[in-house]
User: Which sequence fits this backbone?
């Protein structure tokens, strides 16, 4: 777009200059050139509209007329209430499983589409949405790279920083932060706490520690770090303008237009720079950022190629590493407060695994309580942090999905939150039933249902093991120590329904009470 806009402006002034050179007055030259520009642009726009409506390779797919004309329609739909997934749901209800949601974008609600688009054997690449940060793969974060070969190289450094071995090293630090949250819950004993906020504090502190070996002191001070607000503003910006990636890209590059995010971007850059400045080549990396810097210092093939891309990666550590886990934890606590049977069951299982009470807590013991994972999996099904993304682009030869052929170079999406609540594959789809991932797995048909909260295939979230570790540690500790209940006047309804699609889920406040349990010692109870 930069090239088109720059060429247009240059040609426009070139024409003005030519007219003036031919003896026209400056005012005349300006008027004539402007008329030419208007006539050129209206012809161009009408031919684009004509092409998209009557000739485009996606013209046969049903969908709102305006969605086929311009992506600005999707922009409008997402900016309206920042709940694009709801708009998509309504479009699917009206038009069926394959809907043209943009001139060359199809939203698909078929289970068979999931492996074909996202699976390990898929030939699709990341869609044009990922161009919103620019298309130079040497200057962008791992998440934005559309070139698969480059992506696979960069991914190796991330996989080292998020390996099971590395997580073993992070685990005591995660536990330490969770204990700070428990201390705050004890201090507040029984008085309402906004878990959306406190989950974010825990998550940001854990991310600071395992991401940068840095203490951001959210939990100690009880105050959210200013960067957390910037993260949400930044995500809301992407959630609305992201439907027109080229516009987002241009706006982000205009000095001043992105000033609101400058402090957040600078914060991320500073954290990465500080780590580089204190680099000790002899020491084994102790955090994710250090693993990425190590790749750069060692000139490894997985290294971030430029300072810009490394800085962009630091934003991924901060956003992907904190916001996702915070949201899942808050949602899990919501479901535990709402469903007392599930809360009692998981507490009983935790007490059985740790008969000597909190003093005997250990990650190894808690990992064996697989019901915690079932609760997490069910929460992720109903409230995946990544709601509507990710977008992919079909290969040039196109893609056959059941009876439908999708032409080549078309953006395709399968909205995770909708497909994971679809009653064709999920029994009692809106009910919270953790057992569907455990004891009732077969009966509920879970293995045949589409499930993708961490994405799939090559682009599966590299942080999923860290996310599970965070969740197991925090949920087991909270449940072991506290009874969880809605605060007086809190029904959880607004929390359940009024979240935003930004495109990471943005949750409203939720007030819960945590009442300290009496010490339990099941080994002496028998
Ligand atoms: C419950 C927590 C989490 C969920 C549900 C989640 C989900 C996802 C999903 C769906 C994607 C794919 C996005 C896409 O295709 O554009 C993704 C990518 C990614 N996630 Fe996570 N994530 C979680 C936690 C984490 C954590 C703790 C980290 C650690 C820093 C992390 C790091 C990343 C990175 C680096 C990517 C980019 C990979 C790529 O672009 O292919 N995530 N995550």
Assistant:
């Amino acid at each position: 777009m930069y090239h088109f806009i720059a060429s247009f402006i240059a040609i426009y002034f070139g024409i003005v200059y030519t007219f003036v050179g031919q003896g026209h007055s400056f005012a005349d030259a300006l008027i004539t050139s402007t008329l030419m520009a208007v006539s050129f642009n209206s012809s161009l726009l009408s031919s684009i509209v004509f092409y998209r409506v009557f000739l485009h390779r996606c013209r046969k797919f049903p969908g709102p007329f305006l969605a086929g004309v311009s992506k600005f329609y999707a922009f409008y739909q997402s900016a309206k209430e920042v709940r694009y997934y709801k708009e998509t749901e309504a479009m699917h209800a009206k038009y069926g499983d394959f809907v043209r949601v943009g001139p060359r974008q199809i939203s698909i609600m078929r289970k068979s589409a999931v492996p074909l688009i996202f699976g390990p054997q898929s030939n699709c690449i990341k869609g044009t949405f990922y161009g919103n940060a620019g298309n130079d793969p040497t200057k962008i974060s791992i998440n934005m790279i559309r070139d698969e070969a480059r992506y696979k190289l960069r991914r190796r450094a991330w996989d080292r920083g998020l390996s099971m071995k590395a997580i073993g090293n992070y685990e005591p630090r995660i536990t330490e932060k969770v204990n700070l949250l428990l201390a705050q819950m004890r201090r507040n004993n029984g008085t309402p706490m906004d878990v959306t906020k406190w989950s974010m504090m825990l998550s940001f502190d854990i991310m600071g520690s395992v991401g940068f070996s840095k203490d951001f002191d959210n939990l100690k001070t009880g105050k959210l770090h200013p960067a957390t607000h910037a993260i949400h503003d930044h995500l809301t910006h992407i959630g609305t303008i992201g439907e027109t990636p080229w516009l987002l890209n241009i706006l982000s590059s205009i000095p001043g237009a992105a000033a609101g995010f400058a402090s957040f971007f600078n914060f991320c850059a500073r954290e990465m720079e500080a780590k580089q400045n204190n680099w000790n080549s002899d020491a084994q990396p102790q955090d994710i950022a250090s693993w990425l810097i190590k790749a750069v210092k060692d000139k490894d093939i997985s290294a971030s190629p430029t300072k810009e891309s490394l800085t962009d990666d630091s934003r991924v550590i901060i956003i992907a590493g904190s916001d996702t886990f915070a949201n899942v934890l808050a949602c899990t606590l919501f479901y535990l407060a709402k469903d007392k049977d599930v809360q009692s069951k998981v507490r009983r299982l935790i007490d059985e695994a740790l008969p000597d009470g909190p003093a005997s807590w250990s990650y190894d013991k808690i990992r064996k309580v697989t019901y915690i994972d079932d609760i997490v999996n069910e929460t992720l099904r109903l409230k995946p942090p990544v709601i509507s993304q990710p977008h992919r682009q079909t290969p040039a030869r196109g893609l056959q999905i059941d009876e439908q052929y999708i032409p080549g170079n078309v953006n395709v999406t399968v909205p995770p939150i909708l497909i994971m609540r679809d009653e064709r594959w999920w029994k009692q789809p809106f009910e919270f039933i953790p057992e569907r991932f455990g004891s009732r797995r077969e009966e509920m048909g879970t293995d045949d249902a589409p499930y993708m909260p961490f994405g799939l295939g090559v682009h599966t979230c590299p942080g999923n093991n860290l996310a599970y570790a965070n969740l197991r540690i925090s949920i087991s500790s909270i449940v072991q120590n506290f009874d969880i209940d809605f605060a007086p006047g809190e029904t959880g309804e607004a929390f359940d329904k009024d979240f935003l699609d930004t495109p990471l889920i943005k949750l409203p406040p939720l007030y819960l009470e945590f009442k300290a349990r009496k010490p339990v010692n099941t080994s002496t109870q028998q």
In short: The two ends are 72 Å apart (CA to CA).
